[in-house]
Amino acid sequence: MFIRTERLFLRPAWEEDAPALTRAIAHESVAHMLARVSWPYEEEDALAWIGAPRDPSLPSLLITIPDDGGTIIGGCGLHAADSDGPAEVGYWITPAAQGQGYAREALSGLLAIARMAGHRTLRGRHMVDNPGSGRVLTAVGFRPTGGTGSLPSLARAAAISTLEYEADLAGGEPAQVPPTAWVTPDAYIASINAAA
């Protein structure tokens, strides 16, 4: 799946993305806020993630800036919950691109994809020491459930306490979702070449 938001392009990862993906995610501050990312993070880890089998209803996408030659600035996706229940969202932004609203914009685009894939409800969680992630979730329409839990963090080699959120996608698009447009791979490549 490919989707264009106002400033971003969300797309699948390809094997040739491994070096740039590694540079974007291989920051201790990023790895420590994610459950499934090891630290240190190496190019072999990126290749393993890129090559992992995917359920089409649970896309994992790179967040890129097409006007900057397709620079990878993060990732977002859906994954199966660790228990019965709705799919969960996940996302990250490389440190140099944080604080510019990219996570919120990418997550809004991901919600549009999730809705088109037939998801009616999504779950979100963040580690208690990452309150900024909670602000991103609420900005795109997630509501705190009051639930808590924990996530095993590979990077920290420990279980970290989490706060839980939920979004209802069945009631129509949240007001925060910006206009999006589906983009073909050829159109994406043309936009990258035009920016170069």
TrEMBL record:
Coiled coil: none
Domain of life: Bacteria
GO molecular function list: acyltransferase activity, transferring groups other than amino-acyl groups
Keyword annotations from UniProtKB, A to Z: Acyltransferase, Transferase
InterPro entries referenced in this protein's UniProt entry, alphabetically: Acyl_CoA_acyltransferase, GNAT_dom, N-acetyltransferase
Limits of the N-acetyltransferase domain: 8-170
Entry's family note: Belongs to the acetyltransferase family. RimJ subfamily.
The name this protein goes by in its record: N-acetyltransferase domain-containing protein
Organism: Croceibacterium mercuriale
